[in-house]
Specification:
This protein is an alpha/beta fold. Among the domains are: 14-299, Rossmann fold, CATH 3.40.50.720; 305-477, Succinyl-CoA synthetase domains (Rossmann fold, 3-Layer(aba) Sandwich). The chain has a seven-stranded mixed beta sheet, sandwiched between helices. Strands 15, 16, 17, 18, 19 and 20 form a six-stranded parallel beta sheet that branches. Helix 6 runs parallel beside helix 7, helix 13 (372-381) packs parallel to helix 15 and helix 15 runs parallel beside helix 16 (440-447).
């Protein structure tokens, strides 16, 4: 069984706040309907060993604990204050906390920025006072917090037990759901819970760092509606995932990221998919459905990782083995190919009708000998081609299904499975149809740290998370960093001119910038006068040409009738020049026309898009996908935060669902994927060199097979949107 990689060094100031030696409950109450009552009950019944200071000007004692009329008059100096009072009282109370040396305040009240301008003003006032007095804020509009290893339960939740799952959730109901699920499970416990609320001060990145440092937490689990500082969160996530697993359930899309943008990249950024891609890039395990949160958190917390994604299935029923194989394939896992030696050893212990292929179907061999399954696990675990083992079937129910006398052998099998799992780095994940009734053998497995699932789908999702984490950690150890590109004098001059004129780079400028940094661009000519076309016609010797309008005022050239294709000879070029000029003036009479851009027609190939956007939440983000006019229709795209590593670039190309298109269809040769990877890396370096780039679109880029040309791609259109100075 895998051990924890380690914990981050203790640095976070949140330790004093989330594990305080004293707590003031402002608004403490003896009324069972009040939050101040719940908090007192949670602390007292939970056995909190620190000092409790109930603050209530109308009571001498609350639930047997001496009360004080105000923070000013309490005798001690607690690190944390829980404010159970209305929003309007909060700023003054924060000031009082600061004067008494209270380091943090949990603010339950709503009525702040989430309610509108008046609430936002109150929140700003609160934060100004908090910063002035050095008080950190949890919330406002938070459900509260608990730290069960320090007997702190400000929510007074019943039947939650200490464990190794840390939770940060923007939904109090989601926490309650997980707590009830854990109670039903019976073996799952929690370390720390925090509701971040409005994240006025402390955000997800701060809480994640704390959980990464917390010795009682083996897996950090987050329910996220929106990030305040996604770029910083990704940075912290990379640090934490190197030590322990992080599980995120993201609801909805990033609200700020859904801004109107003039590029395809801008239109697609801010999506749920973008958020998921960036989280996975940082090593986070993202679950798609809410009922996967606790199973995956439990599995990762207990088992940590698998060496890879090759799974061996052992089953006592063919039907469930088939279902397991289907789900494993859908999850991106592979069925391990068992060695001849392993299959031969299996045949020695199984009945003749058993299948020793993967999935291994014992075909009744274990009906009278349940512990035989442990022997099969031992043999399969020893196979070098296996990364994890998935036991599927009726484990634990033999005594119920066949004979009560089998219980002893079933328990011996369970004990042997525990020994095997503890001695191996290859995780053992178990699905049993008897899991809901918790027979003794399954209880023993669960108590020993082996998760047992009542859903094949949940078990497979855990196996996928273990394999993904193992591969991520292995890749991180071998990652190579690429030095960023340096800006050129020509590049600086381009952006300076564009900013001075209040415009974006024109297409020919954008392509010139790409060429400055070693990115292949097609030959092209900027034509301002019609009489320049004769020389171009002569130079191109009958090759078909494309002509596009060049104007800072016309963003979508095709919509304006500003594109003409397959032009051969001087006369068609002149006709197209005149038509484009006329169409552009009709489209926008005030448009400033720089001329037209003439370039040889690109040969047919596979159209892809490369784009970049400086997302307001996550910072610079690169996009890759199928290009052309279908990019926003198909949305077969991948996102990564910048700067890219070589693995990031490779994984973007490999992520597309349209792999068959890239590989070649109907006899066509596949594209040069490595050329696309290199282009992605060059674009990443370019964006690093010029913070003036707000958005970038290369669409389409025509991808070609190896040997087609020097670059094996052609950039047909390039747009670079310049960041305006505020």
């Amino acid at each position: 069984m895998n051990t924890l990689e380690g914990h981050l060094p203790v640095r976070s100031p949140l330790h004093d706040i989330l594990a305080p030696s004293g707590i003031a409950v402002v608004g403490a109450s003896a009324d069972p309907t009040k939050r101040g009552y719940k908090a007192m009950v949670g602390l007292i019944n939970g056995g909190y060993q620190g000092h409790i200071y109930p603050i209530n000007p109308k009571a001498d004692h609350i639930l047997g604990v001496q009360a004080w009329p105000s923070l000013t008059e309490m005798p001690g100096c607690p690190e944390l204050a829980l404010l159970c009072t209305p929003a309007a009282t909060v700023p003054a109370l924060i000031a009082e906390c600061g004067r008494r040396g209270v380091k943090g305040a949990v603010i339950l009240a709503s009525g702040f920025g989430e309610t509108g301008e008046e609430g936002a003003a109150l929140e700003a006032q609160m934060m100004e006072i908090a910063r002035a007095h050095g008080v950190r804020i949890i919330g406002p509009n938070t459900s509260g917090m608990f730290n069960l290893h320090h007997q702190i339960n400000l929510l007074a939740l019943d039947n939650v037990k200490p464990g190794d799952i840390g939770i940060v959730s923007q939904s109090g109901n989601m926490l309650l759901s997980l707590a009830l699920e854990a109670q039903h499970n019976g073996q799952v416990g929690f370390s720390t819970y925090v509701g971040p609320g409005n994240q006025s001060d402390i955000g997800f990145n701060d809480y994640l760092r704390y959980l990464g440092e917390d010795e009682h937490t083996r897996v950090a689990t987050l329910y996220v509606e929106g990030f305040r500082d996604g770029q910083q969160f990704l940075k912290v996530a990379r640090d934490v995932t190197a030590m322990k697993p992080v599980v995120v359930y993201k609801s909805g899309a990033t609200e700020q990221g859904q801004k109107a943008a003039s590029s395809h990249t801008g239109a697609l950024a801010g999506s749920y998919q973008m958020t998921v891609d960036l989280l996975r890039q940082a090593g986070v395990s993202v679950v798609q459905y809410s009922d996967e949160i606790l199973p995956v958190a439990e599995g990762l917390g207990r088992l940590q990782k698998a060496p890879g994604k090759r799974v061996a299935v052992i089953s006592d029923g063919g039907g469930q083995a088939t279902i397991a194989a289907d789900r494993l394939s859908e999850a991106g896992l592979t069925l391990a190919e068992l060695s001849d030696a392993t299959r031969s050893a299996l045949r020695e212990v199984l009945l003749p009708q058993a299948s020793t292929l993967n999935p291994v179907d014992v075909a009744g061999s274990s009906d009278a000998n349940p512990s035989l399954l442990a022997s099969c696990i031992e043999l399969v675990m020893a196979d070098e081609g296996v990364d994890s083992v998935f036991l599927v079937g009726m484990l634990g129910g033999d005594s119920l299904r066949f004979a009560e006398s089998l219980m002893g052998d079933g328990m011996r099998g369970a004990e042997r499975m525990v020994e095997l799992a503890q001695a191996s780095e290859k995780p053992l994940v178990i699905y049993s149809l008897y899991a809901p009734i918790k027979p003794p053998a399954l209880r023993r497995l669960h108590e020993a740290g082996l998760p047992v699932y009542s859903s094949i789908e949940h078990a497979v999702r855990v196996l996928a998370a273990l394999g993904e984490r193992g591969e991520y950690l292995a890749i991180q150890q071998a990652q190579e960093t690429i030095a960023p590109a340096a800006p050129t004098e020509t590049g600086r001059a381009m952006f300076a001119a564009a900013k001075a004129e209040g415009r974006d780079l024109l297409e020919f400028e954008a392509k010139s910038l790409l060429a400055e940094h070693g990115i292949a661009v097609p030959e092209e000519w900027l034509v301002r006068r019609e009489d320049e076309l004769a020389e171009i016609a002569q130079r191109t010797q009958g090759k078909p040409l494309a002509m596009k309008v060049v104007s800072k005022d016309i963003l979508h050239k095709s919509d304006a009738g500003g594109v003409k294709l397959n032009l051969v000879g001087e006369a068609p070029l002149r006709d197209a020049f005149q038509a484009i000029q006329s169409n552009a003036q009709a489209y926008d009479p005030n448009a400033q026309i720089e001329g037209v851009l003439v370039t040889p027609m690109a040969e047919k190939g596979v159209e892809v898009i490369i784009g970049m956007l400086r997302d307001p939440i996550f910072g610079p983000v690169l996009m890759f996908g199928l290009g052309g006019i279908f990019v926003e229709v198909l949305e077969d795209v991948a996102f990564r935060s910048l700067p890219l590593t070589l693995h990031d670039a490779q994984s973007m190309v490999d992520q597309l669902k349209a792999q068959k298109v890239l590989a070649g269809v109907r006899g066509a040769a596949g594209v040069d994927k490595q050329a696309l990877v290199s282009l992605l890396m060059q674009v990443s370096q370019l964006v690093e060199a010029y913070p003036e780039i707000s958005e970038l679109d290369l669409n389409p880029v025509i991808a070609y097979p190896k040997g087609h040309s020097a670059a094996n791609y052609a950039i047909v259109d390039a747009r670079i949107i310049v960041e305006r100075q505020s």
